[in-house]
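Exam revision sheet. Question 4 asks you to relate a sequence to its structure. Input first:
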Amino acid sequence: MSGHSKWSTIKHKKAKTDAQRGKIFTKVIKEITVAARAGGGDESTNPALRQAMANAKAVNMPSANIERAVKKGTGELPGVVYEEVVYEGYGPGGTAILIEVLTDNRNRTVADIRHILAKHNGNLGESGCVAWIFEKKGLISVKSEKITEDDLLELALDAGADDMRLQDDMYEIVTQPTAFEQVKKALAEQQIETESAELTMHPKNTVKVEEKEAEQLLKLMDLLEDYEDVNDVYSNFDVDEEVLERLENAG
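Answer key, structure tokens:
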């Protein structure tokens, strides 16, 4: 099994508060628009759009908003044209950072991201400098109280999953992108509720950081995620659980 970054666990712990909802909606609308532009407005033949729409429903976005975003992507309605860009760089402790962006102004975005990284002991790198550390995977989370570990593992593996692990009170099922939809379908057929299901960038290896570096990294990752043009951000850092608990309690 490849490495597991603490950042993916931390992100799933974060509650979606009402104050954040507007930002969440903005990100999901961009995802839908870009997916519809790239692959058309029919979710049955466009897996990226199907996943973006599922993300929208998961945060209770109204159907009318989803429909408008699709039509903006297909050109049926006027709208901003977003460009998908991936930036790569380094954080404290030599950790890798991969930043997925949807922007209507590449020059503005790269300048802002470079500034955020430089201000928090990181730096923007050349294309390809850290992308090799990550691989695309499906990640499906199920609360451990919903089903026994043995039963879920058997079901997931039979459906084509690569692996499963327990993180806090959550089982995380890892799949190849090609098996993602069929594993989700197998869970749904058994009426097993998922907490989240997404295609994500999974680190092949991790870098252990100490408390000071972990504190800097958590702040940096939060700032990058809060930047309006950032769609998602990934890192390969690892940190001891007791250190992470201290930092979370202090925050």
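Marking note for examiners. Residues 15-19 have pLDDT under 50 and may be disordered.
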